[in-house]
Amino acid sequence: MALLPILQFPDPRLKIKASPVINFDAELDIIIKDMFDTMYEQQGIGLAATQVNIPLQIIVVDISTNKTEPMAMINPKIVTTIGSQLGLEGCLSFQGVYDKVTRAETIQVDFYNASGEKKSIKAHDLLSICIQHEMDHLEGITFYDHLSPLKQKRLRDKLEKIRRTAL
Ligand code: ZN
Q1: Catalytic residues
Q2: Residues 154, 81 contacting (CB under 8 angstroms)
């Protein structure tokens, strides 16, 4: 089991746009396994490769309470969005702070699994939010970027306070 260090906001590497995965090989399997290990260790429900300083289009998600629904999505593309929902979001790159973000309610996502097979799923509610949040990371976008300047400042102040206390 390998735990990967997670980049913390405002690390500029969180803004790097990820490249598509071309080789579905053993190296990819190791990255995915390490990403799941890291996400579970940190009690997260999603992690993007961007957050562990690997600029490739890979996300892992598992919204189940007992870690039984791991899903790795490679080169994901949202092909349909329906409706909207406002949900409270957190992020492993912004530990200890949360805010509400508006996202599509239902999405249809095309992606490849770790074996390079083409898949497509329809996701609702929390899974939909989680996938959209993680896919944003692949574009160099975080949930912070969805907030108003006032809320961004509030979040930065809170982060600073949390990090000061943690020292
Ligand atoms: Zn995140």
Answers
A1: 134
A2: no
